[in-house]
Design a protein that fits this description.
By secondary structure, the protein is α+β, with helices and mostly antiparallel strands. It has 5 helices and 10 strands. The protein starts with 17 loop residues before the first helix and ends with a helix.
Length: about 190
C-alpha cells in the first residue's frame, strides 16, 4: 500500500497560494486569509448535525428540481487572489448557470455560490462572522443564511446590512434564489 505524498506546511510568515494550500494534505481544517493559513478546530457534533440537516434540505430540493449543485463540509471558495483568500463554507448552493462558469470542476470554487449557509458554533464571534459575510457578498453571493443552533434563530442576509431574523414561528424560504423552497424554522431545529 502506498501513501500519498504530503506537502508540509510552509515556514511561519511565508504567504501561500490556494494551489499550495490544496497540496497540503495533512494541514487539517483551515481557511486561507490573504495568503495566511488560519487553522480552525474541527466542529463539534451539534454543528455537524445542523450542517448535515441544512445540506439535506437544500440538496434534496436542488436535486429534485435540477437547479444545480449543493456543497457541504467546508468546501473552499476563492474570495481574492494575490494574496489568495479561500473561505470554507458549511453549505453552499451553486446554480447550473454559475456552475457552467467554473473552469476547474475539481478545484476550489471560482464562481460565487448563489446561497451559502453558515452554522454558528459556540465560539464564533460576530465580528468574524461579519467579515466572512462581507467576503461572501463581495464576490456576488446572493443570499446567506446564518443558523444559530443555540438561540434557535436563522438570520437571512441579502447583504451584510439587509438582515431578517427568523424564529421557530417563521418559515424559511428560498426567495428568488431557490424559488419554491420552504421549511418551517421549527423543523430545522427539531432534534
Amino acid at each position: 500500500m502506498t501513501t500519498p505524498a504530503t506537502t508540509p506546511a510552509p515556514p511561519i510568515g511565508r504567504l501561500v497560494n490556494a494551489k499550495e494550500l490544496a497540496a497540503m494534505t495533512d494541514i487539517g481544517r483551515c481557511e486561507l486569509i490573504e495568503g495566511r493559513i488560519v487553522k480552525m478546530p474541527p466542529p463539534k457534533n451539534k454543528h455537524g448535525r445542523f450542517e448535515a440537516k441544512m445540506g439535506l434540505l437544500i440538496g434534496n430540493f436542488v436535486n429534485q428540481h435540477q437547479l444545480g449543485h449543493t456543497f457541504v463540509g467546508e468546501t473552499g471558495v476563492y474570495i481574492r487572489r494575490n494574496p489568495d483568500t479561500v473561505r470554507g463554507m458549511d453549505v453552499a448552493f451553486v446554480s447550473n448557470a454559475r456552475w457552467a462558469q467554473q473552469q476547474d470542476k475539481d478545484d476550489y470554487l471560482e464562481v460565487a455560490p448563489d446561497l451559502i449557509v453558515e452554522i454558528l458554533s459556540p465560539d464564533d464571534r460576530w465580528p468574524a462572522v461579519n467579515r466572512k459575510l462581507r467576503d461572501y457578498f463581495s464576490i456576488g453571493v446572493r443570499l446567506v443564511w446564518v443558523v444559530d443552533p443555540d438561540e434557535r434563530i436563522i438570520y437571512v442576509h441579502h447583504s451584510v446590512a439587509d438582515i431578517r431574523e427568523l424564529t421557530e414561528q417563521d418559515t424559511l424560504t428560498g426567495g428568488d434564489v431557490l424559488p419554491g423552497f420552504s421549511v418551517p424554522v421549527a423543523e430545522v431545529f427539531a432534534e
